[in-house]
Each structure stands twice: as structure tokens, then as C-alpha cells.
Amino acid sequence: KKRFFSILQEEKRIPHKYTELGFSTFISKQDNDNHVYVKEDDVIILQYRRQEEDVIKAKVVIGYVIKVTKRLLQEREDVDRQFAKFIEVIPHARVNFQVLVKSSPGKAIIGRYGKVRVVTSVVSAMRIFKSVYRLKDSLLQPHILKPTKKLYRIPPVAKHALCAKGFLNKEQKKAVLEASVMCLGDLPGIYLIQGPPGTGKTTVILHIIQEILFQPNNSSHRCILVVAPSNGAVDELAIRIMGLKSKFAAVRRKLKLVRMGPKNVVHPKVQDYLLYEIAKRNLHAELMNTVSQSNLKVLQSKYKTFVELRELANNSSADNTIIYKLNSAKLEFEKACKRNTGGSYNEQVRKHEEKLLSGAEIICTTLSSCAGLRMEEVFARTSNNNITCCIVDEATQSNEQETLIPLILGVNKIVLVGDPKQLPAVTQTKEAKDFGYGKSLFSRIMSNFPSDEGNPVQLLTTQYRMHPEISRFPNTVFYNGKLTNSNSVKMRKSIFSSLKPYLVFNFDMEAIMNSQEYSNKAEILCVLKLLNALNQKLASSSNFSIGIITPYNHQRTKIREELELRSFGSNVTVNTVDSFQGQEKDVIIMSCVRESTNNFLTDEQRLNVALTRARHALYIIGSSSLFKSSGIFVLLKSRFQLLNKDYNGLTEQLIKCKAVPSVKAGITTVLI
Fold first, then answer.
1. Does residue 629 register a pLDDT over 90?
2. Residue ranges of the AAA+ ATPase domain (predicted)?
3. How many domains does the chain fold into?
């Protein structure tokens, strides 16, 4: 964790044996942009000077940050140059923070430098605590604590044409209608949508958003909070929502989308929609209309330079010099704007942020961040701003306490979208898992309705991703045969049609590897052979994607190293099972790594994710002992086509192509 030097400004004794220490420091523009500084609810290690009797001692304590204020510096503002030089920072902003520590004898030496290291942030834990504490005041309390058929009964919805155009199957349309009617109704409620792999749950979410916002005769302002457990999942949704811009324009509406979060964790495609970035742009535009004529010319000149460089930088061939000049021009323009705000730049940006949130129709952020200070200020129970509904994507990947965080904002209508058959929330300890801490709100509510009769969960059953041969096994084993293949995947013709859709490479690795290893060189070599064969067969097209899934980080690292040595293209992605949830690739190669001790792959939820990422072809590499001893893999062996042939035959089966090395040795010998 980064260390910060700060100047001790004040010491204040408070009741209950605690002391409040006030510090001040400078941060650079880069740290400001990336939100790298001390924040409220940080736990820190603090070193400062205390005088006890006649002795000055260095004191090292644990502290809890209770308040932080940050202010951007004006261009000619007087700053402590000696301190700035000492901490080796070009001052861009001043950060003042108050720290709570246990009281100690003596007194702190004011004006001396202190050293701070951030250990962790407990902001998410505090929000979870607050959400659970406030559950008693929520209109959704009975829905959450005691789910009943009466509370979750879905009244009949009159069928009508949807506001947004686009094909939806029967179940998707039913989910859109029922969810949107609940969200626009007067009663509190929770609606659950289970979306197995490839069934179009994101499409359903997009249509729910449009159905709520595009309703005719809609005079009241509507705001939809769209959240997910991770920034990656939020950005995936935000990018899809950005794609609705033309549909909003068609009904003469502006896409009022705001993305909350630090810039450094947000996808570049989404950064233009960041709250802070939009607020700055709006303030700058306002200044252009209000400043004096002489200052306007300066602003216009700097803005023109910035726009010209931005157009050059958008060119894919732009070099680093252009990017550097663009960033410099942007900084110069912002400095000129700050000079014209009379020292109130931060305050004016904050006002624009509040105005944007009040007028936003779609707010995207993570579950843990959705009830931040700015959101609480705008959507507090005492304000006139209300959130129409909250849509939680990947709802089964968050624990129940996290899913309650939107309740802090007074949310009383929630749409939960997820799949209990896929990855659950991550729990750090076995004890927490045993006590059900990792169980999602979605899963617990669903468990209250074990039979199909009265079950309020809307299951999407038509899958549009996988070749029918690929979907057969997960459909039978994980979804009790309820999934059907769409006509589009049944009739699909492409360059992949000549590939075998489903193969298992089953060979004896007992003599190759140690059972304690978390990487497997033989499988890596097999992966490379498969990639070469695929590239040979698909050489006529550059527009295809391959994913390599493995349970272990070590195997992932080793495969990536081998791919870099051989200069494979960017169309090949290597990652662990957990990182592949929500993704799909044309071809998936799965490296199981270990033998019968492979406990990781006996986790049905993770295995379901791994087996359902492929559109056209899925190739599994594993040992013979794994397919004999692991329950789920015994089923795999009985249902999949297994190959244990020589390399020449294997490649011919794979790509139906005779232009292969004339190798007659067994596959194990060839791959070692």
C-alpha cells in the first residue's frame, strides 16, 4: 500500500479514551485522478511525534479515518514548497483528514511530519452494516425476511406491445412486462429472473430499462439504479446501455446515463459517462457562456487546441507524443477554467454532480459503491429525489448483505437477475461459507419456493449461444432438461461448421505429473497443438475468438507465457474459470490440470460456467484418472466423445484436414 507523508495540524481529545488527530498533505494530479489518497473509513498505520514528559517519541498507532476533505489548488496559490519538495509531489490538491486513535500520554507535536500507510478500507463493511441496520425501516423488510407466495405473487399482466422494438421470446417478454409493471406500480416488490448461460438476460435488462423510461404519458421523472457486484460487470452493462443511444434519439430522448466510480477502474469506453467527467464538462460549458470577453478568448483558444489534439488522438495511429500533448492541453484548459471560478471550482463541480444525479435516468455503479456519500446526499429519505427501481445484475454473485445496500437509498422495488447454478459470491473462510454468508438473496428467496407451483422466479429457457452438442450436457445435468436450443443455433452455418463441436482429450498423465502440482506442462503442450490446428483451419478468417479456461492461476500464467513466446494473436484469451463468467468465445479449450484430487472442478457451479462459454466448439483436456474418479467427470466421460488416438488421427478428427504432421506416435509421447 502507498505511504503518504502528512503534516500534523491539530489534536483533540474526545470521550471514551480516544483522540482525534488532524493532518494535511498534498497529492499529485495523477493520484487525484486515480483516487489514490486517504479516504473516509480507511484503516491506517500512522507514525507521528508525541512529547511524553520531556521526551519526544515516535509513536506508531492504528488509526481510523473519520473525515476527509479534498480541494484542488489554484494556479498561483501559496503552498508549503519545502513540504512538497520533501514528499516529492507537484501539488495538485490539498487533502485534509481526521484520524481517530486511542489516547496516549503527553501531547502530539503540532507541525511535525507524520507518515501514513493505508492498510485497508472498511467502507464496504460499514455500508453493509448500515444496510442491515436500516432493513427495519424498509418497505421490503417482509419480502426479505419472510418470503411468502402472497408477497411474491405476480398479478396477471395484460399483454401489450413493448415500447422498444426488437425480438423477444415468450419468456423474455413475460419477464420484461412483469418486471416493468412491478417497478412502475405503487407497491414494494422484488422480481427474480433466472438467466442460464446464453439465454439473453442482458437483453431482458435492456428492454426493462426501455419499458420503464419509454412509457407514453410519462410526466414524472424516473431513475433506474443499475448495479452489479464487480466493475467489470457494471461496465459490460453500461456499454450495452450506451448502445441504446439511437433508440433514445428515435423517441426524441437524450440518454441520461451516469457511471459512478473511480476513473482508474472504469472501462475506457465508459469513462465519458463518469459523473465527475460530465460535471466538469458542464461547468466548462457554463463558464464559456458567463466569463468576460477577454477571458472567453483565452478559454476558446485553449479549448480549440484541446479539441484538435483529441481528434488526432482518436486516430488509431496516434503516437505517444500526441497523447502527451492532448493531456497537457486538457490540463491547460482545466487550469484556465479554474482561474475563472474564483476559487470555488470544487464546489461548483460538486453542485453539477448533484444536479446530474437528480436528473439522471440511469445510474450505473457497483453494489458496494451505490450508497456513497454523494448518492446518499441526493437520494436521502428527506429529499424529493426517488429511485424508481434497482436492477441487480449477477445477483447470485453477491452475498445477501451486499444486495441490501441499495435499501440505504430508500429503494423499494428491486429486480434481481442471476443464476444460482453459476458462480456464487466469494467467501474468504470456510467458517463464513458454512454459516451461509456467501449465499445470495436471490438463492435464499428461491429456496423458499421449492416446487414449480407458486414459484415467482421467471426462468429463461431458450439459449442462443451454444452449439446443441455443447448445451446438451449442462442442460441435462444442471438444468434438468429445461433449456431448449434456439433455431438460430440449430441452423447456424459458419467457418466453424467443419469443427467437431465437442471433444475430450483423455490421456494418462500419471507418469507425467506430480499430484501436488497446480500446473501441467503436458496439457500446456496439448493446448498449443490445438491452437496451431485451429489457426490452420480458421486461417481464412481473422474474426474469431478462442478462450482457454483453467482452474488454477499458475496454469494460467504458464499458458500465457507460452503464448507470448509464440506470438499468438489477441483473439486468444487465457483466464481462470471465475474470470470467464459472463463471457463467451467461439472456441473454448479447457485445461483441467490435475487428476482425481481436482476438488476445484468438482464444484458444479464453476464447472457449469466453464462448460457453457463456447459458441461453436468446446475441447476438454484431462487425465484418465480424473474421468474415472470425479462424479461429474464420470458423466462427462459417458456423454462426451472421447479421443485417445494418435496425434495424426486426433488432428484429423478435430479439423477434418489431412495437412498435418505425419506423426504416428501415441498422443502422450508427442505432447511430452
1. no
2. 187-441
3. 3
